[in-house]
Amino acid sequence: MFRTIQVHVAVAKDNEIWHLALRRSENCKLFPTMWQTVTGTLEVDENAFEAAKRELLEESGLVADKWYKLPYLGGFYDLRRDTVESVPTFAVVLEDFIDIVISNEHSEFSWLKNSELENFFPIPDHINGALQLEKIIRNPEQLRIFSI
Fold first, then answer.
1. Which of 19, 62, 96, 106 has the smallest number of Cβ neighbours within 10 A?
2. Domain range enclosing 68
3. pTM (2 d.p.)
4. Between the CA of residue 124 and those of 47, 74, 76, 143, what are the distances in Å?
5. What is the CATH number of the domain that holds 140?
6. What does the alpha-carbon distance between residue 21 and residue 35 come to, in Å, rounded to a whole number?
7. Rounded Cα distance, 37 and 14, in Å
8. pLDDT tens column, 36-55
């Protein structure tokens, strides 16, 4: 079962890969001030990919033409529902930095290198998803395979 999606946004430029990180606002009930990738929950009659596109727009102001389905399934235990949730993981790879327009849910954003991920993302799935994205970015054949 899943209700949650994850979207990784990366810029691949000059042999470097940068990952978008969003910091949750202090007024968020769940995980205030935590750094994260784009995440969200499905709305009624919405599939995972539709939710990913909507959440990307809502949380970053980005609309992407080219998407990837990462060969990685995140997951977590939801204490309130006493359930284990699987998390489909998607990605967008940009050729250059573009303006990010964060929502009220977030207070700031940053572009992180691989070496910075563990210092920012407390949730291992966000780190692991970013690392999986890097792996396929560095292999054009794999990038093509996972294109949506």
1. 96
2. 4-145
3. 0.94
4. 24, 9, 10, 23
5. 3.90.79.10
6. 6
7. 22
8. 999 999 999 999 999 999 99
